[in-house]
Amino acid sequence: MEIMSTLGKKMSLKSERRGIHVDQSELLCKKGCGYYGNPAWQGFCSKCWREEYHKARQKQIQEDWELAERLQREEEEAFASSQTSQGAQSLTFSKFEEKKTNEKTRKVTTVKKFFSASSRVGSKKVPPERVEKIMDQIEKYIMTRLYKYVFCPETTDDEKKDLAVQKRIRALHWVTPQMLCVPVNEEIPEVSDMVVKAITDIIEMDSKRVPRDKLACITKCSKHIFNAIKITKDEPASADDFLPTLIYIVLKGNPPRLQSNIQYITRFCNPSRLMSGEDGYYFTNLCCAVTFIEKLDAQSLNLSQEDFDRYMSGQTSPRKQESENWSPDACLGVKQMYKNLDLLSQLNERQERIMTEAKKLEKDLIDWTDGIAKKVQDIVEKCPLEIKPPNQSLAAIDSENVENDKLPPPLQPQVYAG
């Protein structure tokens, strides 16, 4: 846990130098102990959360006992008043209840003794490693049987959080390693393999059922990250480089049901694993990475708000400038991918210009139509058209009053000799 506190202080100084702005007050325990907090523990660290949970649990148990005693007294009083005439039967029932209670107490005491340290046979002779293995096997058996009932239950909002995180990561697909100051060079084949393995491990976490196995996937992913940093820098990796790289791996892999897996580990994993050791250290960093992704903004990446909004909306991509300077040894598939992205960006810009010009043309047509209609109306008002009826009636050719002498003579048929 002291390592986690030291990491927090170093990361604060490193973030100012690198440009990753992380508000430590949002990541540290809200009780002020100096350790990392976890949203799944209501902002407390694992130790403070256990204390708060124990207090709340004890209070709830006390209230339950008081309620049970009150209900028991009421039941006994009602039973005694209704069974006054049946003394022998009442005596028999009381003996049965006493025997049942003693049997139940004996079983509970036996179970408690099984898990208590003082009751272990030859506790001084049994190595702690063996006890840890036994507890791991018990955890594996129980959680494998109960997995489908306790993982992402309907009574929680885990699924809603999963969808929100997944959508957020998809919207941040444009974030580059340079923006996060990730000290990893994926052009080195070994480093590229380590990155792929790290992504595979963090994705594989969802396929595991036992909390310890899920935690082991996080640990393997983190070790691959440290190896990738070590190969790139040709020196031992530091904790200051680990968190930005872990954020990059999460953004690039977009693990399925990330929040549900984190909540599952928090609720059912052996608390000793989360409070100390490398498993707890790596798990705390994963929680910090998810919190950073959820709160990531333009300032976190040293970008202007305008550029950040353009990248988030998909209007352009920061990789466009990088694609113009590819080395001859770069992967052809990657080159083609960024060429396609540039082409899509250009098509998007052309479409926006066409839509703007089309709207302008539509407005001009409407204005021209209105202008022509107004001019026609003005002309009609100034020069109205009047149609007068004719003064003389038209002559009818077939009428009897037609003057036949004025008509030409009819045509006479003529016969031609053949």
Would you give an account of this structure?
The chain has helices at 2-18, 24-27, 46-82, 87-115, 128-150, 158-171, 177-180, 189-204, 211-233, 239-253, 258-268, 271-275, 277-294, 305-313, 319-323, 332-382. Helix 9 (211-233) crosses helix 11 (258-268). It is elongated and about 145 Å long. It contains 16 helices and no strands. Helices cover 67% and strands 0% of the residues. 20% of the residues are buried. The protein starts with a helix and ends in a 36-residue tail after the last helix. It is mainly alpha-helical and 418 residues long.
What keywords describe this structure?
about 425 residues; about 0% strand; 16 helices; single chain; mainly alpha
How does the SSE layout of this entry go?
Blueprint: H1 2-18, H2 24-27, H3 46-82, H4 87-115, H5 128-150, H6 158-171, H7 177-180, H8 189-204, H9 211-233, H10 239-253, H11 258-268, H12 271-275, H13 277-294, H14 305-313, H15 319-323, H16 332-382
Helix pairs in contact: 6-11, 8-9, 8-10, 9-10, 9-11, 9-13, 10-13
Tally the helices: what do you get?
Answer: 16
Rg estimate, integer Å: 42 Å
Envelope shape: elongated
Helix content: 55-70%
How many β-strand stretches?
0
Largest sheet: none
Structural class: mainly alpha
Strand content: under 5%
Average residue pLDDT: 78
Low-pLDDT segments: 1-19, 117-123
Head-to-tail CA distance between termini = 134 Å
**Could you state the order of secondary-structure elements as H and E?**
HHHHHHHHHHHHHHHH
